[in-house]
Design a protein that fits this description.
Blueprint lengths: L3 E6 L3 E9 L5 E8 L1 H11 L4 E8 L2 H12 L3 E8 L6 E6 L5 E6 L15 H5 L1 E7 L6 H16 L3 E5 L10 H14 L2 E5 H8 L4 H12 L3 E5 L5 E5 L2 E5 L13 H16 L6 H18 L12 H11 L1
Parallel strand pairs: 1-4, 1-8, 2-6, 4-5, 8-9, 9-10, 10-11
Antiparallel strand pairs: 2-3, 6-7, 11-12, 12-13
Helix pairs in contact: 1-8, 6-7, 8-9, 9-10
């Protein structure tokens, strides 16, 4: 028996998101707990799964706040390390009129970059059904080594590996380096969640079905999801595929956490149904639930604290059916 359903490694940071204008006409910024891996875990907790996190924050007010929030969400923080010399990473999120975002990172360095191989508790990974990671933990040499070590522990112990590239261009020394690290993740994962712009980045085509086929064949990825924003999502398992429409809502504020919510819902389905013998109907059911969950989070500010419940997702699906 495994102690955890999903263990994730990666960044934990503060997302400063816009929340109105002050009386003096200045933008008001709200400090939201953020970081894709813990967003995924928070959603999985809402769906009744057991999760753990591996990462590093500064031993400062923001780091302690993040540790408290992640713990409150239900995630095990035994392997959350505090750095006494480097501050917690900060991200400033500018929301565009359509709800999409631009990011400015204060991370030179940030504590999440400082995780080292020897700080990774391999027993957490061994005792998990799925290990999840992204590429923000591969932007710099030390944390990259820790990430690759964690991936190897998972692969050597029969743990499914889940990967979300989560490309943030400003954080990379070069886009060629970003492409190399995404390719490494693609070569190691059993489950891939990739966005439309990342498919184009890796394959050079905006025909996302063609791009997905290129990635699936080149890297032999068993289960792959492509998120298409307002166009819904695609899923591929071996030679079986499915597509599901989005749940567009008038109340959309911003898209922060939408991909993470989708990812968590997809992993939840895998945990409940396995990764073998998936049919088109299975994939369609998975995508529909994940699309609905992602839609709900776009109507809320932040992500980690405000993940939807299964009941809320099912209600939205029923309303739109």
């Amino acid at each position: 028996m495994k102690s955890f359903d999903v263990t994730a490694l990666g960044e934990l940071l503060i997302d400063f998101t816009e929340n109105g204008i002050s009386e003096q006409g200045n933008p008001i910024l709200e400090a939201n707990p953020g970081g894709a891996p813990c967003n995924v875990l928070a959603m999985l907790n809402k769906l009744g799964k057991k999760t753990a996190f591996i990462g590093k924050v500064g031993n400062d007010n923001f780091g302690r706040m993040l540790a408290d929030e992640v713990k409150k969400s239900g995630t095990d923080v035994t392997n959350l390390v505090f750095d006494d010399t480097v501050h917690t990473t900060l991200a400033f999120v500018h929301t565009k009129p359509d709800g999409d975002r631009d990011f400015s990172f204060y991370r030179n360095p940030g504590a999440d970059m400082m995780l080292r191989k020897e700080e990774v508790m391999e027993e957490l990974i061994k005792n998990s059904k799925i290990f999840h990671f992204g590429t923000l933990s591969s932007t710099h040499e030390g944390v990259r080594e820790a990430t690759r070590y964690a991936i190897d522990v998972a692969k050597n112990n029969g743990v499914l590996v889940s990967f979300d590239p989560n490309l943030r261009e400003p954080l990379w020394e070069s886009l060629e380096c970003a492409k190399q690290e995404i390719a490494y993740g693609l070569s190691k994962c059993d489950i891939l969640k990739i966005s439309d712009n990342e498919v184009e980045f890796m394959t050079g085509t905006n025909d996302y079905e063609k791009g997905a086929a290129i990635l699936q064949e080149k890297y032999e990825i068993p289960l792959m999801f492509v998120t298409l924003g307002k166009e819904g999502s695609l899923a591929y398992w071996k030679d079986v595929s499915a597509q599901a429409k989005p749940f567009l809502q008038e109340g959309t504020i911003e898209t922060t956490g939408a991909g993470d919510t989708f990812e968590a819902c997809a992993l939840n389905y895998v945990l409940d149904h396995g990764i073998q013998d998936l049919t088109a109907d299975h994939l369609k059911e998975l995508l529909t639930f994940a699309n609905a969950g992602a839609s709900i989070i776009t109507t809320r500010r932040g992500a980690l604290r405000v993940m939807p419940t299964a009941q809320e997702i099912e209600q939205l699906i029923a309303q739109k059916s």
